[in-house]
Write a structure and sequence with these properties.
The protein is an alpha/beta fold. It has a single domain, classed as 2-Layer Sandwich (Transcription Regulator spoIIAA), CATH 3.30.750. It is built from three helices and five strands. Strands 1-2-3-4-5 form a five-stranded mixed beta sheet. Strand 3, helix 2 and strand 4 form a beta-alpha-beta unit. Helix 1 runs parallel beside helix 2.
Length: 101
Amino acid sequence: MKTDIVRNGDQVTLRLEGAFDMHAHVSFRQAYRKLLGEGDCQRLTLDMRQVDYIDSSGLGMLLLLQGEVKEASPEIVIQGCQPFVRQVLTTANFHKMYRLT
C-alpha cells in the first residue's frame, strides 16, 4: 500500500492507495505514527478513494489507529470509500466509530 500525507494546518489527510491488508501494516502504521508524533492534528482524514480491497487485517489496523489516536484526540473521518470497502466497514460497524463520507 502506498501512503501520502497532506497537511493543511491542524487538518491532516492520509491518502491510501492499494490493498488495505496485512501487507500494508508497516507503511500504514509508520504514516499515522509520524502524524501523531508531529502533534497539532485536530482532524485526521483517511482518503480511501484508491483503496480497492480491505480485509480483517485492515479492520484491525483501523482499530489500532483508533486506540492510539484517543490520546491525541483528533476527529477521524474516512472518505471516498469504494463500494466494496464501504460495505466491509459498515458490516463491521465501523461507521459507528468513524464518520464515513
